[in-house]
Amino acid sequence: MNSNPLQPPNPLLETPLSLITGATYPLKALKLFYNNPPLRGYVIFPVIVNIIVGIFLYFGLVLPGLNEIDKIVLNLGTQIDHWVANLPQWLHYLDILASVLGWLLRVGLVTGLLLIIGFLLLQFGGILGAPWYGQLSEKVEELQTGKPAVLPPQTLTSSVQDIGRAILYELKKLGLQILIGVPLLLLNFIPGFGTLLFTIGGIALASTIVCLDFLDSPMERRRFRFRDKLNMIVRTFPSSVSFALVCFGLVVIPFLNLLSIPVCVAAGTMFFCDRILLNKVS
Length: 282
Hints:
By secondary structure, this protein is mainly α. Helices cover 78% and strands 0% of the residues.
């Protein structure tokens, strides 16, 4: 276990330009794939895995989810209609407001459903495609640094330890989501401002998890602790924020996320090499 991880730039030294630079890493990864055709071979199988997982997720969750959303919106509309019917005639214009609220609710719920499916695709696709993503990350690191990628010892004992670390990593991510997600969920019961905080906090939490996943390959090869991985995100602020948000957006867009996950894995390794190994601040 590495108790002295590499020290990236201090956030006070990060320039405002890095906020923009962090968001460009997926584009840089696409350029890297274009200029280095052998890298594409590491993407084929993960994409196939993503397609298979995506088929199960979208067909298994989208249709039932849309049906439930229809029921929720219909029940809300019925309740509002009943409430408006008992109001004076001059207040019946509130029917229009009910229609608008129903439409907004539908948009919000459908968006939330797609976000959840995209997030699940990342988690399951990432686990199943881990062997290929690991090799892809190694090759990207070699191209970025001009040196062989840092590799952990390859022994039976280390392989067993790797499995344990992977399980522990997923459990710690789950714990982080519960620790922060439950209070956020409670905030959602506060009308107006609470819902806004829940939305912002939820996106921030999901983006942090996404950022962890895409930066994990090079950090795991160096046996960073979970807290050190989180610290890397904090210390590379604000570039890590824009990187996380862009990657989060890419992995939750239906069908695009089937292809964007490998790109973001490569982008995460490039981000790590540039902003942590090479200490670039712009």
